[in-house]
Amino acid sequence: MVGCLILGAGALAVPLSAEQAQAESGAGKADAVAATAADGAWQTNLEKAQQLAKDENKALLVLFTGSDWCPPCMMMDEKVFSKAEFAEQASEQFVLLKLDMPREDPQNIGEVNEKLMMKYKVTAVPTVLLLDAEGKEFKRFSAGEYPDIKGFVEYIGRQYRRKDME
């Protein structure tokens, strides 16, 4: 399991800008267009995401991430979370919620999301929680455990089916 440990408002990680990550990954313009489409599938507010989950009779997939400083988070975003294929498949059963703790944070979203990290006792990123529409957790795991779309979608699908058995 690879992740970035969160210590209060700081983190133990090698800083890597989004530009450096994109340059090192070789991501092209087509990837950027697909990423923009996938980004539209992600909610950023827990209350709104919960209401949407209730309205659509879905569970929540909550991603805690450090988008501009956590190398495993950036890798998972590049390989899985930014892909339209992932958003389409995962959205069949889940409302997608991304809670980011960026270093470059002009809107102070990290402050709000850090409170949610404390509420759900998340200590490292990238962490994924699967919640019912009421916010009750039924599974948690490190996003880095499933570094491709197929494996990730299969895993969350199994967990979704198991939630009613427990």
Automatic annotation (TrEMBL):
InterPro entries: AGR/TXD, Thioredoxin-like_sf, Thioredoxin_domain
Name of the protein in question: Thioredoxin family protein
Gene3D superfamilies: Glutaredoxin
Organism of origin: Persicirhabdus sediminis
Keywords from the UniProt entry: Signal
Entry keyword Signal: yes
Pfam short name (any one): Thioredoxin_7
Residues in Thioredoxin domain copies: 24-158
